[in-house]
């Protein structure tokens, strides 16, 4: 499958999806959104891929929706674009394998929303974040943002539309880690390669479980976790990995 606005690669069971529209700071056009959806559907179904990294590189993630396109849309014609946008978001959010966002530079509005759909978010020290929809008379995605940083923080950053840095995003719990400038992709890929060495089905079920527990009461969550764990204990893959660990411990 050929892509015009993405640069994709697979190495050591990690698929890297890199947005590549540099002249527009990776602004999200309809064609680019369609490519993002297709790429995640493709790699999510590829049994040789255990983890995906979504990035725009060290300098910019995405400036958001393509404003040249947005300002030309009439309300009656907005359904098609909104469908493309949400299909791309859902392709990331519900991709079966874990997705890491590697955020260098700006992740604004629609670009921020792409990071929001990912399971883990890493950023460079100079990364910047912001939901700029309200200042443009548009509505932002509050869900799943409020689930990650809390309703109060989600309301504040969405309603003010302010831009904030990586350190503040880390303090809010939006980011997992912040890396020095120039070290983002190397560090994110290192984490992805380690994760990709794990059993693919275990990664898939653990990600699926994270969606279950956030919507469940405590009793249902505990029962779901028991049921899923029961399906893994005693499998050949689990026994092999336990034995390998025991051999390593004996050598220490």
Word description of this protein:
This protein has two domains: 6-196, 2-enoyl-CoA Hydratase, Chain A, domain 1 (Alpha-Beta Complex), CATH 3.90.226.10; 200-251. The radius of gyration is 19 Å and the shape is globular. It has 252 residues and is of the alpha/beta class. The chain has a six-stranded mixed β-sheet, with helices on both faces. Strands 5-7-8 form a three-stranded mixed β-sheet. The chain is built from eleven helices and nine strands.
Name the features.
single chain; 252 residues; alpha/beta; 2-enoyl-CoA Hydratase, Chain A, domain 1; 2 domains; 6-stranded mixed β-sheet; 3-stranded mixed β-sheet; 15% strand; globular
Number of helices: 11
Q: Quick one: biggest sheet?
A: 6 strands, mixed
What's the CATH class of the largest domain, please?
Answer: Alpha Beta
Tell me the CATH architecture of the largest domain.
Alpha-Beta Complex
| Number of separate strands | 9
In short:
This protein has 252 residues and is α/β, with parallel strands linked by helices. It contains eleven helices and nine strands.
Topology:
Blueprint: E1 6-11, E2 14-19, H1 30-45, E3 51-55, H2 67-70, H3 78-93, E4 99-103, E5 106-108, H4 110-116, E6 120-124, E7 128-130, H5 145-149, H6 151-160, E8 164-165, H7 166-171, E9 177-179, H8 184-196, H9 200-214, H10 218-230, H11 236-251
């Amino acid at each position: 499958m050929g892509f015009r606005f993405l640069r994709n690669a697979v190495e050591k069971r990690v698929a890297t999806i890199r947005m590549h529209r540099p002249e527009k700071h990776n602004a999200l056009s309809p064609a680019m959104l369609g490519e993002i959806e297709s790429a995640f559907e493709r790699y999510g179904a590829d049994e040789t891929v255990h983890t995906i990294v979504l990035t725009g590189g060290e300098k910019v993630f995405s400036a958001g929706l393509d404003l040249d396109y947005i300002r030309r849309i009439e309300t009656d014609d907005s359904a098609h674009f909104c469908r493309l946008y949400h299909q791309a978001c859902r392709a990331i959010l519900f991709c079966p394998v874990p997705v890491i966002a590697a955020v260098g530079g700006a992740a604004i509005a629609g670009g921020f929303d792409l990071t929001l759909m990912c399971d883990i978010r890493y950023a460079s020290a100079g990364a910047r974040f912001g939901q700029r929809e309200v200042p443009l008379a548009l509505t932002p995605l509050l869900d799943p943002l409020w689930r990650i940083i809390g309703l109060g923080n989600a309301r504040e950053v969405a309603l003010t539309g302010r831009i904030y840095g990586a350190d503040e995003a880390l303090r809010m719990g939006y980011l997992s880690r912040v890396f020095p400038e120039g070290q983002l992709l190397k560090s994110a890929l290192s984490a992805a390669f380690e994760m990709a060495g794990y059993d693919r089905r275990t990664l898939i079920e653990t990600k699926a479980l994270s969606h279950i527990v956030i919507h469940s009461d405590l009793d249902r969550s505990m029962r779901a976790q028991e049921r899923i764990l029961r399906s893994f204990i005693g499998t050949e893959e689990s026994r092999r990995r336990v034995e390998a660990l025991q051999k390593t411990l004996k050598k220490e």
